[in-house]
Design a protein that fits this description.
Layout: E1 2-6, H1 16-26, E2 30-33, H2 41-50, E3 55-58, E4 61-62, H3 68-81, E5 86-91, H4 95-100, H5 110-130, E6 136-137, E7 142-143, E8 162-166, H6 169-178, E9 181-184, H7 190-207, E10 216-224, H8 227-241, H9 247-252, H10 256-267, H11 280-286, E11 287-289, H12 295-303, E12 309-312, H13 322-332
Length: about 325
């Protein structure tokens, strides 16, 4: 299992070179840039420039806010510039954000639209690399125009990994069917992983075209080793649990009523009251609670049987807890 770094959500472009060099020196396997307050593709250029071996990726880029062509070009250039170290992590986001934050239409079937987006990405890449005809005709995209002026040159590493992020079974099945990996949302429990998501991924693999496909499982994990992390985890869990489309995670544990309470508080902007509703039982269900010394073995016990990669939801900050990060990276990246 590879141990990766999640870069701070509020990191500016001027912060990225130091972050990237420090992450590589610590021994992380990969670095991930989320799409929250900043575009995730721009820092990826700087990571490629300031490291030699560190893999990196968008964790995640909101795909429904972009055309497949725009993502295909960005990923192609990053894969070329980094000698194949770039991974494209994509996610759909939720309806309210797509419509009211990005001003884009929400599809009738998010799974079908993301399926077409992935097909379009690979169609572009195959066309650019081998000259295969570009002709995608689906319900959401019809892409067939390509002239030499807009066609990039073939590259040395054209097999760009695509990872799909999700909470529910539809996107998990899609990841198993046609993506290279599935990014597990931090709002999860071991029971939800084993009983809901992993079976859906395996069903997707069985339905896919490759008979020997093994989907990478990338875990975003809450970890609690001190009081500050406990408070942070409670805050973030209360936020995620207030999202109606994530309610199935709570329902598995019989906590759907709590989700409705949190949604009501969020609707009234009473965010400060929400963390108090996250009990110790819930915290230990959704987070790995351990001392710093015990955390590597606790994470391995929780995820080691099936996970390919893991990153803590607590962002990596250079010059803070270096011994802690080195211990984790060394425990997994051997």
């Amino acid at each position: 299992m590879h141990f990766d770094a999640l870069f701070p959500f509020d990191a500016k472009l001027s912060d990225i070179p130091e972050l990237a060099r420090a992450a590589e020196k610590i021994g992380f396997s990969a670095a991930w840039m989320a799409e929250t307050t900043h575009n995730p593709f721009l820092p990826a250029v700087l990571v490629a420039e300031h490291t030699k071996n560190l893999q990196f990726g968008t964790g995640i880029a909101v795909s429904f806010a972009r055309s497949p062509a725009v993502m295909a070009h960005a990923a192609w250039d990053l894969a070329s510039y980094s000698s194949g170290r770039f991974m494209l992590g994509v996610g759909t986001q939720i309806k309210a954000h797509i419509e009211r934050r990005f001003g884009m239409p929400w599809p009738e079937s998010p799974v079908d639209k993301l399926r077409e987006q992935i097909s379009a990405l690979r169609a572009f890449w195959n066309h650019w690399q081998s000259g295969e005809r570009l002709n995608l005709r689906g319900d959401y995209y019809k892409i067939s125009l390509s002239s030499p002026f807009f066609r990039p040159e073939p590259i040395e590493h054209p097999q760009i990994p695509i990872l799909v992020a999700g909470v529910n079974t539809g996107l998990a099945r899609l990841a198993g069917e046609m993506a290279d990996g599935f990014v597990v949302h931090p709002f999860h429990s071991p029971a939800y992983l084993h009983d809901v998501l992993l079976p859906a991924i395996r069903k997707g693999e069985a339905a896919g075209q490759s008979s020997n496909k093994e989907t990478q499982i990338m875990i975003n994990a809450f970890a609690v080793t001190n009081k500050q992390e406990r408070a942070y985890a409670r805050q973030q869990l209360s936020f995620y649990a207030s999202t109606p489309s994530y309610r199935k995670v709570l329902a598995l544990h019989g906590w759907q009523d709590l989700g409705e309470q949190l949604s009501a508080l969020a609707a009234r902007n009473r965010w400060d009251e929400m963390p108090d509703l996250i009990s110790d039982e819930m915290l230990e269900t959704f987070a790995t609670v351990a001392t710093e010394a015990e955390l590597p073995s606790a994470l391995n016990d929780r995820y080691g049987a099936f996970a390919t990669r893991i990153a803590l939801y607590s962002p990596f900050v250079p010059n803070q807890r270096q011994a802690f990060w080195k211990q984790l990276a060394g425990a997994f990246n051997q």
